[in-house]
Amino acid sequence: MCVYVCTAEFEARYQELTRLGVGGFGSVFAGFRKNDYLPVAIKHIPKKNVVLSLLCSEVAVMLAISAGTNGSVGMSLPVTLLDWYDVHQELILVLERPVPCEDLYKYCKERGGSIEEKEIILKQVVDATKYLEDKCIFHRDIKLENILIETSLDVPRARLIDFGLSCFFKKKSVYTVFYGTPKHAPPEWGHFGTYKAGPTTVWQLGVLLFEALNNEASFETQRFLKKKLTTNIKGLSENCQDFLRKCLAIVPEERSTLEELQNLP
Ligand SMILES: Nc1ncnc2c1ncn2[C@@H]1O[C@H](COP(=O)(O)OP(=O)(O)OP(=O)(O)O)[C@@H](O)[C@H]1O
């Protein structure tokens, strides 16, 4: 992988096709690598839209993830960074694009009630976040929209995307500025204005499972604290409810760790 500083070099190597999405920070296009037609996602991030530390962080985190996987399409659960370009007013990230794929939000809505598949996917997401934790990476925004599902495989496979708010963390780091989806913020953020990487990721996994299983309800921490949302979801197995309770414990120290979640039935 190289860093290039000229748009012509990017255009010589990659062809852009349709727009896949517009996010808070930029736009993402489908495309392919010209020499072998490898499908790629091309993310344009205008430098004026993002504070420099986050911009650097997204690239550094993606490089760390890709380093562990040789940048190839393999077993890695987060998508990998193939190339990046620092050109004029923007950064261009070229990412692996699983084909075909859809985000977990759409996937759940289209298959209302297919619990078994969702459980497999959730296990993969837990494994992916543990993989990140082992590399000291805090994603900060695990949610349905930030998980792509590869649907062509016999068993659907989850791939984490959008490391735009991510950072490297130390186990004892306490954060006092919130980055992420505000309605999913862990309770300690509302109570004390602080949060830590591990318990926040576990809380977000609870929110993810809650939303995946409740096709009608979207999660809001404030409503959950006022007991307007509960983990008693109709038709859910005792194991699944237990999993949810262990993720959505109000006190961060009482939440399970990712390792404990991996060992739950
Ligand atoms: N590697 C990828 N493969 C396929 N599609 C992707 C990929 N990365 C992003 N997308 C699509 O582009 C959309 C926007 O991507 P992403 O979330 O990374 O951008 P963002 O600007 O950080 O967005 P947001 O503000 O919503 O967090 C995603 O919802 C997804 O549909």
Can you characterise this structure?
The chain is 35% helix and 21% strand. It folds into two domains: 3-96, 2-Layer Sandwich (Phosphorylase Kinase, domain 1), CATH 3.30.200.20; 101-262, Transferase(Phosphotransferase), domain 1. The strands form three sheets. Strands 1-5-6-4-3-2 form a six-stranded mixed sheet, sandwiched between helices. Strands 7-9-10 form a three-stranded antiparallel sheet. It has a two-stranded antiparallel sheet with strand order 8-11. It is built from nine helices and eleven strands. It is an alpha+beta fold and 265 residues long. β9 (147-150) and β10 form a beta hairpin. The longest helix is centred in the middle third of the chain and has 20 residues, at 115-134. α4 packs antiparallel against α6 and α6 packs antiparallel against α8. Bound molecules: adenosine-5'-triphosphate. Adenosine-5'-triphosphate is lined by residues 20-21, 23-26, 28, 41, 43, 79, 95-97, 101, 103, 145, 148, 161-162, 164. Its EC number is 2.7.11.1. InterPro entries: Kinase-like_dom_sf (IPR011009), PIM1/2/3 (IPR017348), PIM_Ser/Thr_kinase (IPR051138), Prot_kinase_dom (IPR000719), Protein_kinase_ATP_BS (IPR017441), Ser/Thr_kinase_AS (IPR008271). It catalyses: L-seryl-[protein] + ATP = O-phospho-L-seryl-[protein] + ADP + H(+); L-threonyl-[protein] + ATP = O-phospho-L-threonyl-[protein] + ADP + H(+). Belongs to the protein kinase superfamily. CAMK Ser/Thr protein kinase family. PIM subfamily.
